[in-house]
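Student: I would love a firmer grasp of how sequence relates to backbone shape in proteins. Thank you; the sequence and its tokens follow:
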Amino acid sequence: MARVRLVQTSFVRGELDPFMAGRVDLESYFNGASVCRNWLLLDQGGLMRRPGTEYKATLPGTARLIPFTFSQDERYLFALSNTRLDVYSMAGAVIASITSCPWTTAQLYALDFAQYGDTMFLVHQGMPIQKIVRTSATTFSRTAFAFEAHSSGYPIYEPYFKFADEAITITPSATTGSVTLTLSAAHWVSAHVGAHVRVAEKTCTVTGYTNSTVVTATVNETLASTAATAVWDEGVFSAAQGYPGCVELHEQRLWLAGSINYPSFIAASNSTAFQKFDVGTGAADESIQYAIGSDGINEIRYIVSSRHLQIFTDIGEFYPPLASGAALTPDTMSFRRQTRYGAKRVAPQDLDGATLFLQSTGNAVREFLYEDVAQAYTAEAISIMSPHLLDSPIEAASQRGNNTRPEQNAFFLNADGTIAVFHTARGQDIAGWTLWSSRTGDAFVSVQSVGEHLFAAVRRSINGSTVYYLEKFSDDDSVTLDSQKTISGSGATFTGLAHLAGESVYLIANGVSLGPHTVTAAGAVTIAETGVTSLKAGFNYIPTLTTMPADAATRAGPQTGNVRRVLRASLVLNTALSVSVEGQEMIVRQVTDDLSEPPAPITDSKDFYFRGFSRNPTITITQTDPLSLRILALALELVY
């Protein structure tokens, strides 16, 4: 029998779809794995046990996390839950809590936001626009967004549109005071109460609903006459017509779009006046208002401020082509469709020079990338080799490295509570996926980055109850458990683990895993070891790496389908304290070691030997103990 040595120096393709099992003609086959779970892919080609999470706070319920950055020194994390907003510091302390908010749990993942300085704008199609304002380092307020008005009170500078048929006329009963507004055909609904209606460009506020053709209103600006006229319109954003579903800040303007009854309409505020939408005479600094016209009704779902203003709708992707250095104005505004994939309601992520968006079908992530040669955008699928890791994503986030690691990652939160992680470095042809999960039965319900820090809201079952925790992914490999907390003490009993009460957890002390222990209802654990002064406690999670079926090119061609055997596996390790290959545990301690000292991490090659033949021989690498582990390369000795 012949032997060949196969060396895998890179895992940059991450976990490959099962349909890739026979693609030995692709380089990706030899830079990927058939299973790659709970690993962090490294820029240099290796991988490490994914960062664990530190417990920071208990949330009031299921929540969506949103970043708020006032400055590099003052950063916060918003946790939006049912009719509530809690503001947390980076350390997990509650800074402020606001109740009686207009959003519900069902609306959380469809909320869109944009921030400028100390103000955040929050929108949803079924909710009036909201403003969250940081009024001091420790205080925040929430108010409903109000369009700017003339100094006299009227007109109100908001977008207007005639939703009714153009032929329908309106007849006011008087020119001042409280009047009735009678239409020539049905249009009014009870939700029109409170809306602004313009009759020949003079404003009225609807105060009461009579029927589909008659409402009462207060005249805000004296009307020209009581004659019937077809020249009338109403506010684009209202309870009757729906509110904007997306918001963005671009070129010193606030952009609003995607309402229910006018989904293709986009409006930009006057320059530097975020609450003023006055079209005026169409001057360069006045409001831009435009409806995308194409071969279908486009629902604008996201606006992204990048190299250009990017518009993502449910059926296509657009941008306004401009000469280099030109600004968007009422005269230059137009949209050109680039691709026809459509975007699902998951926020696009600006990462590695491209905008990543989830296709409307929900089963592909694409990168919206500008090609200078073609002077146009493309939208190639970056998930084409790992689509099975996407399970109806509901949220996305991205991170451009942190203080200890340079890796750029995008995180797509799946409906099942797992996180599909995409690692990219386009200049080095690095692009791969892995999947993160926590303890069986628990689920990530939100993931968000704030600068270099990555946070998650996690649903956990604790002592028979469902709770929601705010947890922070570690910036390095010092945290290897989930919901980890480090407690100090002496003796046999350690306290301070109330958030883990009644649960089986893993303990780590002096760089050694003490194995599973049960936390008492009072939040205490008892250990048999002596001399311990600091204890890490949390939930273990298992990183699993299974190679693609080992194959080799011979004179007769690939060995695909032939019986063959992996005789030996050599792992190139870095700072590893625990690893298991096909059930074989790596020996870290030697009999000559001083057991009172922490074990020395292994940075070396380790060999593991196996028996048995297979038509699809693979090697599975896991960890029993939740300790540091980096794998830089893998060499297999194949017998065929």
The radius of gyration is 30 Å. Residues 245 and 516 are 47 Å apart (CA to CA). The chain has a mean pLDDT of 95. The longest strand covers residues 127-136.
